[in-house]
Amino acid sequence: MTFVISAVLVAMNFNGTFALLLPVLALALVLFSRRWDDHGLIFCALIILSFSYYYSLGQIVGLLTVMRVVLLALLLIAAVKSLARRLEYGAAAAAFLLFFLLSAASSVLFSMYPQISLLKVGFAGFFLLGVMLAAGGTGRFPYALLGAVIAVAVLSVALFFINPSVGYAYSQDPNAAFTASGRYSGVMNHPQLLACLLAVNIPLLLFMYVSQRGLPSALSLLGLVCAFCINAISSSRTAMLATLVAVGLSVFLYARAAVDQESARKTKTVFGLCILLLLAGGIAFSEQIATFVRKTDDVGAGISLSGREEIIFASWNGFLDRPLLGHGFQVPSPFTEHGASTFGLTSEATNIEKCFFLTMLLEEVGLLGTAVFSLGILLLYRHWLRKGAVVSVAAMTAFLMVNVGEACILSPSSLGGLCWLSVFAAHNLTFRDPPPDHGPR
Length: 441
Prior knowledge:
By secondary structure, the chain is mainly alpha-helical. It contains 17 helices and no strands. It starts with a helix and ends in a 16-residue tail after the last helix.
């Protein structure tokens, strides 16, 4: 079935019929199977709106609403199945519930668009709490997620050799893949989405490579190599930061946690190869790397943050204006609204949404909401470290690094939702105990 999911995911990029088959398959397995990783299956249902072939579907408001309802319904079903076993994330779920209640209060009192804020609070709250409640204690390998991630990575690299102007790059400019920084997005509808999603799943691919044997290990290695290649050609500095953190932290955690010599040897081999690649790449492509980091050929201009610094500064001013509860959930404040006199930027210059998640949180929910949200994250880390869930620790850290440049942690409809599902799909992977129930492959 893992190969079936991969095959359907590949086929749906070329034939619209398969776009319906994947969510139907995910729904059927969530409803009638107790041996598949539910988070991975829901990931497969959500990802269809992020493919370049269906880019226009994502612009249909009614369809997005339907997809959100389906997404929440799948999470509800998975949560009911999981709660029949035990509640694993009670403390973290309570913290996030308090966070969303505070966000709702802040939005009612201070939001420029209270109805929109409350709708977003409701969707994000039901989603994130559903993800946690659906995470039962039964050990199940995330083969559904693994198949989807490998298919995305391998197909995107293959299409680069066939047609380097696929996806978002093609819809914006047929020559985009050959100019400036590449902007290659593979089968996804945006290069940032493709590269960041793969970066968050690098800990899973690396774990499967070092801990498994035979075909699962070989396929994971293929996906890992393709993920590195995508990050090299996607022109996403955010994804590159997340990738470096994901690899470094994964190697550190896996080397400490590995209980057999083969896993430890593979981990050390990956670490050595990464060091060699970094050194060789730094020497051979020093000028290209400098241009990639600066996003400009003008050495004297320094590093270009593509408008992020202005947005961060504006969000900070919004926080200072209302420090306790903020200006409302996931909407602009008077400081970050396009054309606001305090913003000092035109709409054309603010093509990047709120980018740094800490200033976003401070602006929207103030010190109180940010503190409660941080507590929820810390409770997740504490639980995973006690459990030995090193994959989720590394994946969550990579996800936070993504939110340094792309604040999507509270936006479940696309990259944010896919990353949350990826983190929790791997929450039972550990080196401590004998391998959990593998489920269907």
